[in-house]
Write a structure and sequence with these properties.
globular
Length: about 190
């Protein structure tokens, strides 16, 4: 799952959201250096990633992309699934995605001092282009995939995955919906034990 899903799956807990969002920038046991609830958000993120990577429905989505994108396929599916969450946002939240996104950027600024440097640098770009809201459109996802492709020095060709998104849109969406229902239940159960 990508940014939007991780934030959403954290529920209404601000520090859990922060931890879940920054987790990819916190390696190994460095999560212990953060306040307890943020640390728990980092742990929750790792559990969500493990669950997602091993899930048969996600593997089915990945297999559709694997011949062309190889090991980048899992990253692409994470991004595509965020598209389906954003595109169908009103089914998941009563808060409009525009407001939800802006509220989250404000939350990041509240915790700015403890964010990893990488996230601090990323935040102005994320807010300026409203990444979370942009996930709702195919062109927005195209921009995200192009940015990821640039980060791999054009090796991944992830920018081209918009073609498969459009070609297999209904299959990806069906897989997302089935998987996300299970992921929400899994996450709620994991949050009880944090």
């Amino acid at each position: 799952m990508n940014f939007l899903a991780h934030i959403y799956l954290s529920g209404e807990d601000p520090e859990l959201k922060i931890g879940n969002f920054i987790a990819d920038s916190v390696k190994g046991k460095k999560f212990l250096e953060f306040p307890e609830r943020i640390s728990q958000g980092i742990i929750l993120h790792r559990k969500i990633d493990s669950y997602t990577d091993s899930h048969p429905i996600v593997k089915q989505s990945v297999s559709r992309l694997f011949p062309k994108y190889r090991h980048y396929s899992t990253v692409i599916v994470d991004i595509l699934y965020d598209h389906f969450l954003a595109a169908n946002w009103t089914e998941y939240s009563d808060i409009p995605l525009q407001k939800y996104s802006l509220d989250f950027y404000s939350l990041l600024y509240e915790y700015h001092e403890i964010l990893p440097k990488q996230i601090q640098k990323l935040l102005p770009y994320m807010e300026q282009d409203n990444w979370l809201l942009s996930y709702a459109t195919i062109s927005g996802i195209g921009n995200v995939l192009s940015g990821m492709n640039r980060r791999t020095k054009n090796i991944s060709k992830m920018n081209l995955a918009v073609i498969e998104l459009e070609q297999y849109y209904s299959q990806f969406e069906t897989e997302f919906r089935s998987f996300f229902e299970e992921l929400e239940l899994y996450t709620k159960n994991e949050m009880i034990t944090l």
